[in-house]
């Protein structure tokens, strides 16, 4: 089975808005600092999903987004491959609201890679922070541990 999702990093020019997943019971992301985003709803494009998820989780309206890459997570949840579109948002409107999935925090660029997160996130977050070209990547996990990864960058 295939799942489609987005991961979105809101960037204010000196910090990324990260979500500390500390509120949902039985959360696969519990304790980790991640971007906002989530699963596609019926009929959504990647951009539709990203904008909706950003608004639902943060209260912000994305006005300038860039698709940075696509990541495949084979069998990330039992019998489900996840295909995830990664966005960087550099312009937005509105005010941050409380999120029912965790605590939102602006994290300075130099501290982003120090936050507890998935091993793979530490890899592709470097690509986003370094403004690398569009990427297609695959991150394979076994029991929440990164086993392998690969990437192709497109100029």
TrEMBL record:
<dbReference type="InterPro" id="IPR000086">
    <property type="entry name" value="NUDIX_hydrolase_dom"/>
</dbReference>
<dbReference type="InterPro" id="IPR020476">
    <property type="entry name" value="Nudix_hydrolase"/>
</dbReference>
<dbReference type="InterPro" id="IPR015797">
    <property type="entry name" value="NUDIX_hydrolase-like_dom_sf"/>
</dbReference>
<keyword id="KW-0479">Metal-binding</keyword>
<protein>
    <submittedName>
        <fullName>8-oxo-dGTP diphosphatase</fullName>
    </submittedName>
</protein>
<dbReference type="InterPro" id="IPR003562">
    <property type="entry name" value="Mutator_MutX_prot"/>
</dbReference>
<keyword id="KW-0378">Hydrolase</keyword>
<keyword id="KW-0460">Magnesium</keyword>
<feature type="domain" description="Nudix hydrolase">
    <location>
        <begin position="1"/>
        <end position="130"/>
    </location>
</feature>
<dbReference type="InterPro" id="IPR020084">
    <property type="entry name" value="NUDIX_hydrolase_CS"/>
</dbReference>
<dbReference type="Pfam" id="PF00293">
    <property type="entry name" value="NUDIX"/>
</dbReference>
<comment type="similarity">
    <text>Belongs to the Nudix hydrolase family.</text>
</comment>
């Amino acid at each position: 089975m295939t799942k489609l999702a987005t991961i979105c990093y809101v960037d204010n020019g000196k910090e990324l808005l990260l979500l500390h997943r500390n509120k949902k019971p039985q959360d696969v992301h519990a304790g980790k600092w991640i971007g906002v985003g989530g699963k596609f709803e019926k009929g959504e494009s990647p951009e539709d999903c990203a904008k909706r998820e950003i608004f639902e989780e943060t209260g912000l309206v994305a006005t300038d987004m860039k698709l940075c890459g696509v990541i495949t997570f084979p069998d990330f949840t039992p019998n489900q491959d996840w295909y995830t579109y990664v966005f960087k948002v550099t312009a937005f409107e509105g005010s941050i609201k409380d999120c029912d999935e965790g605590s939102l925090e602006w994290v300075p660029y130099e501290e982003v890679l120090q936050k507890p997160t998935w091993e793979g996130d530490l890899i592709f977050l470097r690509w986003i922070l370094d403004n690398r070209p569009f990427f297609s990547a695959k991150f394979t996990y076994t029991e929440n541990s990164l086993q392998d990864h690969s990437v192709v960058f497109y100029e």
